Amino acid sequence: MKIGLFIPCYVDQFYPKVGIATYELLLKLGCDVHFPMKQTCCGQPMANSGYEYLTKGCDANFIANFSEFDYIVCPSGSCVLHVKDHLHDEKQEKLASEMRKKVYELTEFITDILKVDSIEGNFPYKVGMHVSCHGQRGLKLSQMTELNAPFFSKPEQLLSNIKGLDLVSLRRKDECCGFGGTFCVTEEAVSVKMGQDRIKDHEKNNVDYITGGDMSCLMHLEGILRRQNSPVKTIHIAEILNS
């Protein structure tokens, strides 16, 4: 299968190693992976701020870059959900509709399309799993704790065979970190307090790393950790699975 690698702009600019880890991991899993060089922002920041009408150029560019692929894979649940819900093109609406069904978050693609249950690797550290809201509540990557339903977690399932990894059980495992895209700018104080509360849950378990599927959330937590001079580090799940 021919895979188009969709890398969020903030990952491309600030965390390129996450994009590289995603690319290498998909290659190891037998995928034919391509990175369209002219891809840009998917338009999520504008849409989240109430300016979705300004994203038509982003939509057209996304379609031009990714229409040829069997699947589109991205290491970010929020960007994937945005494309799934908001990709439109008045001139090519049928094509846009088809593409919305072909875009997948990384762990979702590995478990649901490649049918891989777990991945062997080596990461001898104590790890806390941060569950991002878009991935859980939008893409259904894991079960919500307020529901009386069987637990599942696609990211945790993939981490189960990583040698040496000690995945801790958090007290409030699906609580928002406070990032929320532009929310962290418009409501900075609330955003920071939510992030501090989220970090406390991890620190009480003495984790070495906080991992997750959205580098945007991890970037928010990383900033708070640095300001607190905390020894805890953040790492995207793709980097662990590629270890």
From TrEMBL:
InterPro entries: Cys_rich_dom (IPR004017). It comes from the Bacteria. Pfam families: CCG. Residues 4-83, 127-221 form the Cysteine-rich domain. GO terms for cellular component: cytosol. GO terms for molecular function: oxidoreductase activity. This is Fe-S oxidoreductase. It comes from Flavobacterium cheongpyeongense.
